[in-house]
C-alpha cells in the first residue's frame, strides 16, 4: 500500500483536530468579529445525512451555514439558530488524509460559512478566496 493511501486510511481524531483549529481561528479574528463569531456554534458531522441530501445538500459538501444571517437576525424569520456545520469525513477525504491540509481546510471552511452568516454571497466569498 502506498504511503498516501496509508495516510488516507489512518484517520486521527478528526473532531478534536477540527475543534482545535476552530478555536485557533476564533482567537485570530479581529475583536469585533471574534465576539460575533463566538456566538455561533460550530458542530461536526461525518457527511450530510440522507435528509439533508433530499433537501439539496450535495453529499460531498464540506460545510454548511444553518439559520438566519446576521444582517437579518432582527427579523426572526428562521426557526433555526445560526450555526456552522462541518462535515469532517468529507473534509478529510477532500484533503486526501493530510492533517496539515485538513486544518487549513477546516479554517477556510469555517471562514466561508462565517461569511454566509455575515450575509456574503458566493461571489463575495470567491473574491475573498474563501470558495
Protein architecture, described:
The chain is mostly helical. The chain has a single domain (13-70, 78-127), classed as Zincin-like. The protein is 50% helix and 10% strand. The protein has helices at residues 3-9, 14-28, 31-37, 50-54, 88-94, 99-117, 122-127, and strands at residues 42-45, 63-66, 83-87. A 3-stranded mixed beta sheet has the order 1-3-2. The longest helix has 19 residues, at 99-117. It starts with a helix and ends with a helix. The model has no long low-confidence stretch (mean pLDDT 85).
List strands and helices in order, with pairings.
Elements: H1 3-9, H2 14-28, H3 31-37, E1 42-45, H4 50-54, E2 63-66, E3 83-87, H5 88-94, H6 99-117, H7 122-127
Parallel strand pairs: 1-3
Antiparallel strand pairs: 2-3
In short:
This protein has helices at 3-9, 14-28, 31-37, 50-54, 88-94, 99-117, 122-127; strands spanning 42-45, 63-66, 83-87. It is mainly alpha-helical and 131 residues long.
In sequence order, what are the helices and strands, one letter per element?
HHHEHEEHHH
Question: What's the CATH first level?
Answer: Alpha Beta
Indicate the mean pLDDT.
85
Span between termini? 33 Å
Briefly note the CATH topology name.
Zincin-like
In CATH, the architecture is 2-Layer Sandwich
> Runs with pLDDT <50, length 5+?
none
Number of strands: 3
Which structural class is indicated by helix and strand composition? mainly alpha
Major sheet details: 3 strands, mixed
- β content, as a range? 5-15%
Can you list the strand order of the major beta sheet? 1-3-2
Number of helices: 7
Radius of gyration over alpha carbons? 15 Å
Number of domains as seen in the coordinates: 1
